[in-house]
## 1
Amino acid sequence: MKRLFPLCVLVALVSWCALYATAYGTPSPPAGQPAPQSVTLDLSSFGAVGDGVADDGPAIKRALDALADAGGGTLTVPLGRFAILTPVIKDF
């Protein structure tokens, strides 16, 4: 049960981000400027293990920071059981 709660929080966070993006969309670039490239990042490349034991909170934080630095994008989460023992807070 203790491990299920952080996963539920992660799912809720991802769902909220998807709903927010759908509602507000991506702003159009100013006239004459090319559209920004969409960034896709993989959570495992930031050190997430997904074994249900190792703390994946810092890896999720690094991935969200990288998405924020890129101006947005998609975070791919591979199959696994991700333990979030360290609080993850990111204000976009």
Note: The longest helix spans residues 4-24.
## 2
Amino acid sequence: MATMNRSATVTECVRALARQTRPPDHVIVADNVSTDPTVHDLESLPNLPFPLTVHRMASNRGNAGGVEEAMALAFAKGANAVWILDDDSWPRPPALEALLGPGWSPKVVRHAIQICPESQRLTWPLPVRNGDKSWRLIWTTGELPPGDYIPTRASWTGALVSKEVFAAVGPVNGELFIRGEDEEYPWRIEQAGFSFEAAIKATMDHPGPAKMIHWRFLGRSLFLERSLVDSKLYYKVRNMVWLKRKQAGNLEATLMALAYVGGVTALDGPARLPMLAKAIWHAWRDRLGPL
């Protein structure tokens, strides 16, 4: 996981890992140049059942860059799989044991179920199979299909990525900074021929956005948070439009850009238009990295 200036949050995540019925063999936290006591507090945690490495980043590279470096370090240390977390995703005690349960295959990316503590709904909508093999989005645990392990698509937080997957797919694109690696890396995993499945008994508490808006545009689902701060809005729109160009070409990317312009303007008014224009222009120019 990566963190920055969130000492209480990230130390609680490490404590949650220490409470696992099957603790991880090693925990690596990439610190994005925190100016609060994050590094000190992490390194002072007592009686952990695993080695803890706090990887000091040379500069703030966001969640994408932090996870890129932490994953590379983990596999260099000999890991056969890494478990991707956010610093505010707190696995319940049986989570890792369930992920590594019967039938685990390094060619399938298993992932945890994320629950928002406030609403008790899924933190993010989860795609699951319909009876006709198409996909549908579900929002509650009550909608989950039967079984301990169910096919899904495109997971990031809570995903168990094997060294076989990493060798085929390569590193996370750290230049996405934030709000993009969670879409781009799972897409590359799927493009490389690997699949995803959810471990129903692997649950983690992960707060979700309080004001997430879901709308359909030309048959596609788009998600946006109302009143998102400018920097997060910039990364969200830039990275999604950039990724859509890579996936489907200029026309689809243009339609996505127009959808974001219309949606954000309807939600927050025209004052966001300059930031949206900058994000879309940078997406078209392949200008990634930090804002």
Note: The two ends are 22 Å apart (CA to CA).
## 3
Amino acid sequence: MQAKRGPLKGLNPTVALVSKALVIAFLLFGVLQTDLASEAFTSLRNGIIASVSWFYIVLVTTCLVVSLWLMASRFGSITLGGPDDKPEFGYFAWFSMLFAAGMGIGLVFWSIAEPIYHYQDNPFLTEAEEPSASQLAMRLTFFHWGLHPWGIYALVGLCLAYFGFRKGLPLTIRSSLYPLIGDRIYGPAGHAVDILAVLATTFGVATSLGLGAAQINTGLNTLLGIEISTASQLVIIGAITAIAVVSVVSGLERGVRVLSELNIWLALALVLAVTSLGPTAYLIEVFIQSTGDYLQNLVWLSLWTDADQNRGWQASWTTFYWGWWISWAPFVGMFIARISKGRTIREFVAGVLLVPTLVTFLWLSIMGGTAIDLQNTASADIVAAVNEDVSSALYATLAAISPGVIGTVLSIIATLLIATFFITSSDSGTLVVSTILSVGDTNPPVVHRAVWGLSEGAVAAILLLTGGLSALQAAAISAALPFAVIMVLMIVGLLISLHRELPAKSL
């Protein structure tokens, strides 16, 4: 399946050429027909929301339920690998890479802005800024960033690790369909599955890169007075993409792992500073209360389709998030599988699903809770900052809790954190795309890693040019749809294979 010589050496020629052709076609369309591209993205997004948003809701909830069931089931003791395989990474490095790949830029971007948006308006708020506004804001933010996205990642990653390391199939999306179509995974059907995974990954990562560029631009404006503009953001994308390419070329151990651990230390420094400078006792209470409130409302929120109301809010938030997480699933799932060989199914699901969710809740409580407290006590108008420029929410909050030198230092740390998350997201996506193109080779050719790293940056730039945040959201929702169908088949294939294995294994 891999080319033995020529410029495509080490890659599957069909998957590589078709994927590149489709990405190039998108780039040309965006450059040559910018207005038409913007209209097309909007129309496609609206069509998906109107007709299949329910499918996203059911699928994402199913992923979470199946992941939890597998963790508690008799299949939990199955090792993702051979009997002698041991985990390659310790828990700290493993969790660091999980968190950096799975959330990264998006969590930094939205951790303050989203609670403030919901604080002002959401479908369950009868009167703006009534006493329940804060609680509802945190409930909805927890819902979008909690167990559901990690359930998607856990299930896709588990499929890939199980078939790749335990069944000896290529570490690529097509292998998950082996129980359903057998050796036909090596033919046109398998090629199509991997091409869709490459496209979903490229657009999912590009969405995050676009958000990261906007927030880095705001940080540089705060610190250095650099103009906030599309041109500035394009320069930022170019510069950070170049750094990311160097990192991904250096490999998983030296590049991605080191940056992922740096992310954790920077995030820890920032969150400890905000906790100590902000309303510490209130933030602890927010964390405890919001976690309980989230768990209490988890089931009905998971199945809420807004059937009788205007779907505008759900389209902008829940449907966008579910589409974004699904579009991230090929690359995050593949990346998680790549770093999880030797772990049991129970350990894998518990680590992927529960630990990052808990850390995410803590981060949201501290950052979002601080912003809400500033607004409630009239210490700062964070609402106005968010409404003026969503990417300024983080910096407005940091400036409010500590004006002067300390606030500037915190803004520097925040900007560095966004930049390192930017790099690790690009690294992870590039490594995964290259792995898919090389039919599961965990050390894909260096030149192709570089090419796809640059491609992701180019797609992010085009999305900014063709509509900014709206285009980024449309791309995420649209890229997710074909892969969402594949995910259904992956779930069925995994369950079939696990049940076939059970009689031959003592659990």
Note: The radius of gyration is 22 Å.
